[in-house]
Specification:
- The chain is of the alpha/beta class and 216 residues long.
- Helices cover 33% and strands 13% of the residues.
- It has one domain.
- The chain has a 4-stranded parallel β-sheet with strand order 5-2-1-6, with helices on one face. A two-stranded antiparallel ribbon has the order 3-4.
- α1 links the parallel β1 and β2.
- The two termini are 18 Å apart.
């Protein structure tokens, strides 16, 4: 089944479990930008508990299409976000293996939010062996006939447990002894903690027929 996703900043495990299982993926780039969602926010697990990292964007006013939203270059967010990832995961088993693949996005981020998100997504997919192109939309459609529309389903404002095709399979987390297992964090949490075995977690987190043509 083809799946339609909203753009996301190091999106949650829920999204990548569906991406792993789907036969094709489409990314929405023509909807209006929605604040306080995974479009510009990810949640990691820090020493002080779950931590939301929010990308600052340039506000143009009105219903701004997400495909034209620019990242703000003020406030030194690149350094703050990268330092937060280092602080949270430098003691994880696979941080040293993968950090150099993600660091360049924070040193030289592209101008557009969707390009920043897509670059990180494609890098994570390559590291996890999930192949296949995610096609961008060319126009906005209210419905997605013949596929599954996850644009609003996968959201920090909605309980992930209402998703009939996703279950959160527990895995090792650096601060698990302190907080217990925290489900559906950013894919960065799964990547740094589990490395190649993250593929197995994604596979087992999807409930339904696995029809993926993306996996290498």
């Amino acid at each position: 089944m083809h799946v339609l996703f909203a753009t996301s900043y190091l999106g949650p495990v829920q999204q990548y479990a569906r991406l792993y299982a789907c036969s094709g993926a489409v990314e929405e780039r023509c909807e209006s930008f929605i604040k306080q969602t995974y479009r510009s926010r990810c949640v990691i697990l820090s020493a002080n508990g779950p931590l939301a990292l929010s990308l600052p964007v340039v506000h143009r006013g009105g219903n701004q299409p997400v495909g034209g939203v620019e990242l703000s270059m003020h406030g030194n967010w690149q350094k703050l976000h990268w330092n937060a990832l280092v602080s949270a995961y430098e003691r994880s088993p696979y941080f040293d293996y993968y950090a150099d693949y993600l660091r360049p996005f924070y040193e030289h981020p592209p101008r557009l939010l969707v390009d920043f998100n897509a670059g990180l997504r494609d890098t994570v997919c390559r590291l996890l062996g999930i192949s296949g192109r995610v096609e961008p939309t060319r126009s906005y459609r209210r419905e997605f006939p013949g596929g599954e529309d996850c644009r609003t389903l996968i959201s920090p404002k909605r309980d992930w447990r209402i998703d009939p095709h996703f279950r959160s399979r527990p895995y090792y987390q650096v601060f698990g002894a302190k907080y217990g297992f925290v489900p559906n964090l950013s894919i960065a949490d799964l990547l740094f903690n589990m490395g190649p075995e993250a593929r197995l977690v994604l596979r087992d987190s999807y409930v339904g027929d696995n029809v993926c043509s993306h996996k290498s």
